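Subject: Interface between my chains keeps coming out wrong

I've been trying for a while to get a sensible model of this assembly. When I model each chain on its own everything looks fine, but I need the whole thing in one frame so I can look at the contacts. Pasting all components below, labels as-is. Any help appreciated, I'm running out of ideas.
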Amino acid sequence: MAAMIGEELRAAFHRLFSAMAEIGATPAGGVCRLTGSPEDGRARDLLAATLTATGAEAIADTVGNQFGLFRLPGAGDTAVLCGSHLDSQPTGGRFDGTYGVLAAVVAAQAVRARLAAEGRTARHHLAVVNWTNEEGARFQPSLTGSSVFIGSLTADAALALADGDGVTLGAALDEIGWRRDGTLPVRPIRAVELHVEQGSVLETAGVPIGLVTGAWATRKLCLAFVGEPSHTGPTPMARRQDALRAAARAIEALYGIVEADGKGAHASAARLTISPNSPNVVASEVRVWFELRHPQQAILDDMAERFLAAATAAVAPLGVAVETAIDERRPSLPFDAVGVEIVRAAAAALGHASLETMTVAGHDVLALQRKMPGTLIFVPSEGLSHNEREFTKAEDLDRGLDVLAETLWRMVTAANV
Amino acid sequence: MAAMIGEELRAAFHRLFSAMAEIGATPAGGVCRLTGSPEDGRARDLLAATLTATGAEAIADTVGNQFGLFRLPGAGDTAVLCGSHLDSQPTGGRFDGTYGVLAAVVAAQAVRARLAAEGRTARHHLAVVNWTNEEGARFQPSLTGSSVFIGSLTADAALALADGDGVTLGAALDEIGWRRDGTLPVRPIRAVELHVEQGSVLETAGVPIGLVTGAWATRKLCLAFVGEPSHTGPTPMARRQDALRAAARAIEALYGIVEADGKGAHASAARLTISPNSPNVVASEVRVWFELRHPQQAILDDMAERFLAAATAAVAPLGVAVETAIDERRPSLPFDAVGVEIVRAAAAALGHASLETMTVAGHDVLALQRKMPGTLIFVPSEGLSHNEREFTKAEDLDRGLDVLAETLWRMVTAANV
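Reply #2:
Try treating it as a single job with all components included. I did that and got this:
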């Protein structure tokens, strides 16, 4: 079977991808496009201009979620959502998120063109989307726009989220002109996201397409360690209540449990704030953002509880209190089985091998899954993710784009989807 | 023997102390006067106005060191320096540094008045001083102004020091109008500093005056842990090079060595910077400011070397490199014996008990000691230091002020000093 993406559209995709990679480009080949930054604004402007140029209806909502509605002949008030995000980590890669948004734009064009060429109708429209603050790099929690879209987070709460400097998401969006008042005028019936894998499963197996059947369960905890300021010199050691020493103990406790268990969990402590952060004042308050992830919910839950108990016990002798500032649980939801089979069939029809896998990382489609069937498609990653050296080969991008277009075609035309 | 500080001057001291405590006052009873901040500017303005009102010559130099020259009858081109600092920690106490500066202003007035009353001459002038950035809270290293004054740090290097936001000391001083071009027109022959103890030795012993005979040796190290950014989710644990995990191990290594040794060392890790500081990106670079202190140089040196070796060994399995960004050694120098005897005699003459002790914390007079005899006098502290609840009783402040005035009198009038 021939791919729906012709040479012209394929070239347009690569031109668009290169143009987007220029926005917020970092010296090491990555991008820095924090949500609400000028670079985020320019990325949104480029997407909006591209959508309008293709004849899609460009819409943005109150938290900056950006939609491109491709109205298809014959469809009523329903649509298949397809997209990802254009924001990045501070030293992010140029594929993460961006690939999924731009591939959706091109795949939607291909589906629309094929319907016209074959004189056919569709059962659903296609809505391309760029979700706000997927990364959670500047504002926590992550998956902000998609969570607001499905109602698990209110728009007011999202707009009030503050970054490390106290700037709110609302103010940041206003600054770049992307707090809007649009709403998507169709009812989404399922969501699809194409993404680079960010792990090494596909690369190791030598398979170009990942059929994502489920997500690892994730627990995100922000713990506040509360001690007391004192002079790092004369204060007797026994008199100190050292919040940074407590945080270090808790970090060690986390990795100790994960390694002793040997059950393949992933864990991290990657963000930290410290007060007063003077070399001569014992830290009075330290906050650490911890993450624990495991494919099995029960194992994760047990591990997280043992971590909390171990951290509390480890810091108690220091006279430091532990408070849970954030406790976010993302359950291990399986992806919609119908979607997995459509992607499997699409890949097979195009002659591409595929492999069932799970996602460890969070994705917008995971947030959306609470309200509609979700489908996640992976292409291989080389090297690292959340790193400027993140890389996926052009032929792998092309295969993913082909599979996405074929998947969307089947989703909007099949009688039973 | 009657104290030189009469009721009027004593009341003036307490009024001045209260006025200064208002500048940068924090809700919990402390002060926040970071170097080069608007509050630091207002504190300097108050000191300058006070000096001018007392008839002293107010001078400030290129790094903002602020002098008040009390010209005494009969003196030539030499002076005894006496002062401390008006800058504070972010949540500092109102006594630390401020007491020494304001007591020096009042003691110098008392000495000058007594010379006039008795029709006597002095051998040296008195120069009151407020040293810039003693605390090192905003700009590191600490003791900045006094180090420039004695030539162990160049003015250019000091002015180029940058805070956490990249603002230089020079720019910060310009902002508040305190980068000046004055120089002290006399040659300092010794330096005296009166300070609250910040420890509990005097309070425990019930003695009002501390004769400081020496300083603990101090090693200040800023270590950079350099790993690589990656996604906290899918990146295999073995593939990560986690700089924060490395920093936590090094912090634990520090306290482990100090406690296992049981030799009474003081140690801390109180300032930390982290990059990129996103909850979803394994930290690629973490810097930690460590301090180790011990009365004996040899024990400190051995402990510091074992710490560096242990930290390097602990983080090596993580694939994280350790680089020494700052390595500052403050040797355990004894204070000038003549000065100690003058203070001992002054206290005895006033009927105040005194006790030989050492300073654990750094003080400007320690930097000055490299070039001139230095004398440090302590009064008791209650509670904590580098804490808004820092406290010294009024009667202890008064005793210290009396001893300082008597000490300065003896230093400027005695034939053999």
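Reply #3:
Confirming on my end. Chain B touches chain A through 68 residues (CB under 8 Å).
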